[in-house]
Design goal:
Elements: H1 2-11, H2 15-32, H3 34-47, H4 54-77, H5 83-89, E1 90-93, H6 95-103, E2 108-112, H7 121-126, E3 131-135, H8 140-143, E4 150-152, H9 158-164, E5 169-173, E6 183-187, E7 190-194, H10 197-205, E8 208-218, E9 221-226, H11 241-259, H12 270-273
Parallel strand pairs: 1-9, 2-5, 2-8, 3-4, 3-5
Antiparallel strand pairs: 6-7, 8-9
Helix pairs in contact: 2-4, 3-4
Length: 288
């Protein structure tokens, strides 16, 4: 009830006022969340040694927290979000890549990393296509905006297999930190361990793997860039195909994050991503 009242209040605001509230909340999150702030600053300094002054790192980290805060505000208003508001906030390029894949009769696995507010693409894609989600729990508000089904992250179900094999779009993120069966890739010059989720799904379904990234460009506006599909078919012939495909997937995003590190939500968790699975805390070891 409280969340519903808050959501109704937020959507009654103009986008500019809504954005000012996000900035205030992000700055407070930066000030009060001392542990995550330290983790993010350490990860930024380690990844870009000598590139930024101490003051620049602080400014980057502060902006990072503001961008992260935006997704929580939008999370509250997903069921009530106005189409005209969404159209003002979002600029989308590259939809032709999805269209071309679907026209070939292929299912599309649309994947990204945690950046900007990647969930804003849910109502946008759902306007045009049947759009499914592969997500963890606590997503009722986001799921209400999708035109398809919501699948669990930890297993391939027959329904998911069928969705990937027909002309539907299914979305997921690839930089989560939980799981046991992880593979090593190089990202931002560091060895990290990630779930080979899209590689496994592609090997079963031969769906199109299409990356996208959502970038916060300031003032409450976002660029969603849908990129050309990964060419992975030859990689399936190798025993280490999961590593090969995941490496290609992460390389797609590296230049965007290097250009503006504040966009990536997962800086506080980079230290965990660098840990081999056997060294990770138990809470990150849910069943794959």
């Amino acid at each position: 009830m409280v969340l519903q009242v808050l959501a109704e209040f937020l959507v009654s605001l103009s986008p500019s006022t809504f954005f000012r509230l996000i900035k205030i909340a992000g700055f407070l999150n930066y000030l009060l969340n001392i542990q995550k702030r330290k983790m993010a600053l350490q990860a930024l300094a380690t990844t870009f040694p000598g590139r930024y002054s101490s003051q620049d790192l602080i400014m980057l980290c502060r902006r990072h927290f503001i961008i992260r805060s935006s997704k929580y505000f939008h999370f509250l208003v997903y069921p009530l979000i106005k189409e005209e508001w969404l159209d003002q906030m979002m600029r989308v390029t590259g939809m032709e890549h999805i269209e071309a894949a679907l026209n070939q009769g292929s299912g599309v696995l649309l994947f990204t990393i945690h950046s900007g507010d990647m969930n804003l693409i849910v109502p946008l894609i759902s306007r045009r296509y049947r759009f499914n989600l592969i997500r963890l729990g606590r997503i009722d508000r986001v799921a209400s905006q999708t035109s398809g089904q919501v699948f669990p992250t930890h297993r391939i179900t027959p329904a998911l297999y069928r969705a990937l094999g027909r002309s539907e779009v299914t979305g997921m993120t690839i930089d989560g930190i939980a799981g046991k069966k992880l593979v090593p890739v190089t990202f931002l010059g560091q060895r990290v361990y990630v779930q080979p989720s899209i590689a496994r799904l592609a090997s079963y379904s031969r769906c199109s793997l299409i990356p996208f990234i959502n970038l916060d460009i300031g003032g409450g506006h976002y660029d969603t860039i849908i990129l050309p599909p990964l060419h992975y078919q030859e990689d399936l012939n190798y025993p280490d195909f999961q590593i090969r495909i995941m490496q290609k997937a992460f390389q797609v995003f590296e230049s965007y994050i290097t250009n503006d590190p504040s966009q990536w939500h997962s800086w506080p968790f980079l230290g965990i991503m660098r840990m081999p699975p056997k060294d990770r805390p138990a809470k990150y070891m849910h069943r794959d």
